[in-house]
Amino acid sequence: MDIPLSDFLDQWGEVLKSQVITTMHPVYQPKTEDLWDAQARAQLGQLKRTPFEAQIRCGILPIARTLYKEDRKGAFLVGEMGAGKTIMSLAVAALDPKPAKRILIQCPGHLVRKWIREAEATLPGCTCINLNGRDMTLLLDHKHNPAQPRGTEIWVLGKERAKLHYQRKPGLIIRQGASCCPDCGAQVFLNANDPAPVCEHCQARMWSADGGRNRRYAKAEFIKRYLPKGFFDLVILDEVHELKGGGTAQGQAMSCLIARSRKVLALSGTLMGGYSKDLFFLLWRMFPRQMVQAGFEYGRTLGFAERYGVVERTYKADDLGPDWNQASIGRKTGKARIKEAPGISPLLLPDLLLERSAFVRLNDVSQALPDYEEIIVTTPMDDALQTHYFDLANTLVAATRKALACGDMRLLGKMLQSLLAYPDGCRFGERVYLERGGVEELIASAPALEINLLAKEKRLLEILATERKQGRKVAVFLEHTGTRDLVPTLVDKLHHHGFAPLVLRGQAVKPEQREEWLKENLSIGQYDCLLCNPNLVKTGLDLLDFPTIIFFQCGYSVFTLRQASRRSWRIGQNLPVRVFYLAYAETMQDKALSLMAQKMETSLAVEGELSGQGLAALSESENSMLYELAKALTGQQPVEDVTTAWSRYRQRELASVLDLDETENITTTEETRVTTTTTISSPDGQTALVRHELVVRGRVYLRGNTAVAYVDGNRFRLQAGVIYWQDRRIGSYDRQGHGEINHKPIRLYKPPHLGHFVLAEVRRAA
Question: Distance between CA atoms of 681 and 664, rounded to whole angstroms?
Answer without folding.
Answer: 36
